[in-house]
Structure formats: C-alpha cells, structure tokens
Design goal:
It is a single chain. It is built from 15 helices and seven strands. The chain is an alpha/beta fold. It has one domain (3-327): TIM Barrel (Alpha-Beta Barrel). The protein has a seven-stranded parallel β-sheet with strand order 1-2-3-4-5-6-7. Helix 12 links the parallel strand 5 (251-254) and strand 6 (272-275). Helix 14 (288-302) packs parallel to helix 15 (320-327). The radius of gyration is 19 Å and the shape is globular. The two termini are 17 Å apart. The model has no long low-confidence stretch (mean pLDDT 98).
Length: 334
C-alpha cells in the first residue's frame, strides 16, 4: 500500500498493512534540512522540502503545511515577524484596539501572501509526490483565529463580557476558513486540519454555546468538499469530549493529558484517534524501546481506527532514533 492508501483505508475502516504514522513536524523538519524556521514558515519551497525529506527518511505517511497560527492572520492585515528559531510573532493583532468588524478586511486565499504560500505548498506536494502521500492542509478554527485577531487574553475576556460580538467575529473567521480550505482541497489536499487550541482553555458551557456551533459549520463544509477533517486542540480536552463527539470529525488528535480510553468511549468507534505520547517526556527525553511500548499500549487500548502520533508537535532536538521508533511499522490488529 502507498502511504495515502494506508491512511485512507484506516479512516474508512478497511484493513491496512500497518498503522499509518502522522506525527506533526515543524521546527524538527526545518532543522532536518538545515533551514532556519523563518524560511520554513514563509517560503513554501523550504517547508515542502523539509516535510518530504522527513517523510522519506523516517517513514511518515503524510506531508503537511503546518508551521504557525498566523497564516490567515496576515491576510486580515497583521504584520508577522519571522524568527530564525521559534514561532513567528504577531506583535499587534488587527483588532487589538478595536471591535469594529467593518474595518476588518476579508482575506483572499489566492491573493493573501501567507495563505497563497500554503496553497502553493499543497500544489508542490501534489506535483512532487503524486498520490504517494496523504496531503494535510490546515486552517485555524473559529476560536483560535478570533484569538489571533483580538489577542488571546482579550478574546477570553470578550467571551465572558460580549459573547454575541465574539460570535460575529468567529462567524467571519469560519467564512474565511471555508474558502481557505476550499483552495487547499482544490490544490490537492485530501485532509484539512483544524487547529483550535484556545478552546481547551474555556469551560464546557462556553465551548458548547459559542465555539462548537462554529466548528460544526466548518467541519460540515470541509467534508462536503470531499476531504477528511482532522481536529487538533492542544491541551486537556477531557471536558470538551461530549461536544467534540457531535462534530463527527474523521481524525481527532488527543494530547498527552487526555485519557485515550475515555476519548474512545466519548467519540465512538468511527473517529480515528491520533496520539497521545507526551512530546517531551515521552518523545524528546525517552528511548526507542519506551516509545514502541507506549504506542503498542495505546493501540491495544483504543483499537481501530488509530493513527500513530505524539500528543502534539515532535519537539526540535528529538533524537532521530526516537522519531524512527514512532514511525516503525506497527502491525495492524484486526
């Protein structure tokens, strides 16, 4: 089976030769090809080269466009500062000092610099790899992008003080995310990841009343395009699992502080669970033998559909032998 066939079969409930490997590589991929992270984030050619080289050298089953949360944000008019090491910075969110949504531009994914860079990355993957790998596109979720536009702390305050305005802002974010996802699917992405990390920091009530309905609209729209949806919410999402179960995503990333067995019970047998090794203690500072054992344990615990992954990004500085252990073929259990 090709990597793309393996991944698609697992998500559709069909047998595979071994379990697909989908670890998140960002700074690690840049380091692997000797590139600085600013170039990795801003130049699709660097990102594509880093991800393809890692897929070939370590045995991943996908290539992706992830690097930082500010792709759409730049399209809304924000200045993004790129660093040689570390995540790009957005010193002044577009709505830092304003709640006037009429002044907020609507990004065009085929004209906004960073969004077009992502679309070009997807095109380059398809041109260079054909149908060999699954191609993971990415959009920010409604809460994550709203927080990028307003500033994290202020957005969390707004959710309590003026949830109606937050809803309007998130609806705008979903509109843009749908068109951004559509551009990536048209370019060749077969999966769109939704990153909504800030959602783990709010209560179940706030999530279900104000964030979940917007995520539902985004998920339905992407699936209607014919793409799989992968939801990534960093942190402890235990209190959100009942709501997440209603999204019917295809893949759910599960961070290391969430009980995998509980996640399976909550979201049901159809959703592919990905995770959930601690990226630091379980990957960066671990050993190949311990990593293999942890992955075997997680797979036995939750069963199919399952995808091998750490709880979040593989940290820079991870010993290559540890990533190889993550990507070592894990026999499919019928």
């Amino acid at each position: 089976m090709t990597s793309k066939q393996r991944y698609g079969a697992m998500l559709r409930g069909a047998p595979v030769d071994f379990v697909p490997r989908i670890p998140i590589l960002m700074q690690f991929a840049a380091d692997h090809i000797g590139a600085n992270y600013g170039a990795f984030c801003s130049d699709y050619r660097v990102k594509v080269e880093g991800n393809i080289r890692c897929a070939e050298d370590f045995g991943l089953d996908l290539v992706g466009v992830m690097s930082d949360p500010f792709s759409e944000t730049q399209g809304y008019g924000a200045e993004i500062i790129f660093l040689d090491k570390g995540v790009p910075q957005c010193p002044h969110p577009p709505l830092e000092n304003s709640t006037d949504l009429n002044k907020l531009p609507t990004p065009d994914p085929l004209k906004s610099t960073r969004m077009l860079n992502t679309v070009n990355a997807v095109r380059a993957y398809r041109e260079r790899t054909g149908e060999a790998y699954t191609i993971l596109g990415w959009v920010e979720g409604p809460a994550a992008e709203a927080a990028d536009l307003r500033g994290v702390n202020q957005f969390l305050i707004d959710l309590m003080d003026d949830p109606s305005w937050c809803g309007e802002l998130m609806e705008r974010c979903v509109d843009v995310a749908i068109e951004y996802a559509r551009a990536q699917v048209t370019a060749g992405a077969d999966t769109i990841g939704i990153g909504d990390a800030i959602a783990s920091q709010v209560s179940r009530q706030i999530y279900e009343e104000h964030i979940l309905p917007r995520e539902q609209r985004l998920v339905r729209a992407i699936q209607a395009m014919g793409a799989f949806v992968r939801l990534h919410i960093c942190g402890n999402i235990t209190h959100l699992l009942d709501g997440i179960a209603t999204l019917s995503v295809d893949v759910l990333d599960v961070d290391h502080m969430v009980d995998m067995a509980l996640a399976r019970r909550k979201v049901g047998p159809r959703v592919a669970l990905a995770g959930n090794v601690d990226p630091v203690s379980g990957v960066l500072r671990s050993t190949p033998a311990a990593i293999r054992e942890r992955i075997r344990r997680d797979y036995a615990l939750v069963g199919n559909p399952y995808l091998v992954n750490a709880g979040c990004e593989i940290p820079p500085g991870t010993p290559p032998e540890n990533l190889r252990a993550i990507c070592e073929p894990l026999p499919y259990a019928r």
